[in-house]
Write a structure and sequence with these properties.
- The protein is an alpha/beta fold.
- The chain is 20% helix and 28% strand.
- It folds into three domains: 129 residues, 2Fe-2S iron-sulphur cluster binding domain, sarcosine oxidase, alpha subunit, N-terminal domain (Ubiquitin-like (UB roll), Roll); 112 residues, FAD/NAD(P)-binding domain, CATH 3.50.50; 84 residues, FAD/NAD(P)-binding domain (3-Layer(bba) Sandwich), CATH 3.50.50.60.
- The strands form seven sheets. Strands 2-1-7-5-6 form a five-stranded mixed beta sheet, with helices on one face.
- Helix 4 runs parallel beside helix 5 and helix 6 packs parallel to helix 7.
- The radius of gyration is 22 Å and the shape is globular.
- The protein starts with 12 loop residues before the first strand and ends in a 10-residue tail after the last strand.
- The structure holds FE2/S2 (inorganic) cluster.
């Protein structure tokens, strides 16, 4: 059951992935369409050509890079689907599923020291270094340069709030109700941060509050920018200036100046620490739950949930409601097994837990944006 059986989640377009038509919903992310199609494999790693799939589903880990309409290294989790969108997997020889260069991983179980390749013989070393240079890098340059962006024009606001999760929304609401004209921006295409997962933890406001805050911001003359990443923030005499890259059909760079800034950047999911933690099928629980709630994506049949506490419990409950089996992981995970997708977890004590999906609900890391000594 790749999607919830609900007419709201019915596919209404198709994207082309390595030439194959994959049904999708217009506007959902490429990762949602691929997970709903049972394809968590998105490409191969740069060095050992290990299978790569999305992890965070929230623009923060870069394990979902694909080529989109000829542009390399585009995050699949922040690319909206539309009819005919051309997606190609990267870093493969023969396709992501049967990448011939995957042999590098099989033949070098202890890794490769590429600084000392075949140093016992100069000629062989040169050949080996030349070959490794040809294999290195991520993606291929596009045949044509993308169209240039419009020159950025400077905009002024009373305040800017970076991050539209619960903290950023709270700040934006207070500023807007106080009459401030503000820019509320978030790098994800949808506002709400963790509220989008519908965890409904005690004290969480309902998701509908997101719309109320956006309306309050607009009423005060401000703007809400989703899919907008703040690239840098520099203090200067006339306030603080930031470069903001906005995605969407007409990507553009904005220069935004404001005397007040609120950085409410939230948290990042951390990959679990065990061998095989990069297998496709291992996801941050929040990303998975957002895809389930917003796009009806059911990522597999057998889930395991890693983590303690209310968030892990709620994750297991949501996945069960969606029709998956979902078992909480008890004890330490020693390694993950699988080929092109997770197949099982090996636990301390020798237990083998079969699963095709691991939802990681362990503590997250605060997104640290302290790049300036000046307080903002
Ligand atoms: S950045 Fe796309 S899955 Fe993490």
């Amino acid at each position: 059951m790749p999607r919830l059986a609900d007419p709201r989640f019915a596919a209404d377009c198709a994207i082309l992935v390595d030439g194959h038509r994959i049904p999708a919903r217009a506007g959902e992310s490429v990762t949602s369409a691929l997970l709903a199609a049972g394809r968590p494999l998105l490409g191969r790693s740069a060095k050992y050509h290990r299978p790569r799939g999305p992890f965070c589903l929230a623009s923060s880990c870069a394990s979902c890079l694909v080529r989109v309409d000829g542009q390399p290294n585009v995050r699949a989790c922040e690319t909206p689907c539309r009819e005919g969108l051309r997606v190609e997997t990267q870093n493969t020889l023969g396709g992501a599923s049967h990448d011939l260069l995957g042999a590098i991983d099989l033949l070098s179980p202890h890794g490769i020291d590429h600084h000392h390749l075949a140093t016992w013989n100069e000629l062989v070393n040169r050949l080996a270094v030349g070959a490794s240079r040809r294999l290195a890098g991520l993606g291929q340059l596009p045949r044509e340069a993308p169209p240039p962006w419009e020159p950025a024009r400077e905009e002024r606001y009373d305040a800017v709030v970076v991050g539209a999760g619960p903290a950023g929304l709270g700040a934006a609401e207070a500023l807007a109700r106080g009459g401030a004209r503000l820019l509320l921006c978030d790098r994800e295409a949808r506002l709400g941060g963790r509220l989008r997962c519908r965890l409904e933890l005690p004290g969480d406001p309902p998701l509908a509050w997101t719309g109320e805050v956006a309306a309050a911001v607009r009423r005060a003359g401000g703007e809400v920018a989703a899919g907008a990443t703040v690239l840098g923030l520099w203090p200067d005499a006339a306030g603080r200036l930031a470069a903001v890259a906005e995605r969407g059909p007409s990507p553009r760079l904005r220069l935004v100046r404001a005397p007040r800034w609120v950085l409410a950047c939230g948290t990042w999911a951390q990959p679990p620490l065990f061998e095989g933690n990069d297998l496709p099928g291992i996801f941050a629980a929040r990303g998975l739950l957002a895809a389930l709630a917003e796009d009806g994506v059911v990522p597999g049949e057998r889930a395991a949930v890693l983590g303690e506490g209310a968030e892990a419990e709620a994750t297991a409950a949501r996945l069960r409601e969606a029709g998956m089996s979902a078992e909480r992981v008890e004890g330490e995970v020693e390694r993950a097994r699988g080929g092109r997708r997770l197949g099982a977890l090996l636990l301390a004590g020798g237990r083998r837990l079969r699963c095709d999906t691991l939802a990681v609900a362990t503590p997250r890391l605060a997104a640290d944006y302290r790049t300036s000594r000046a307080p903002v």
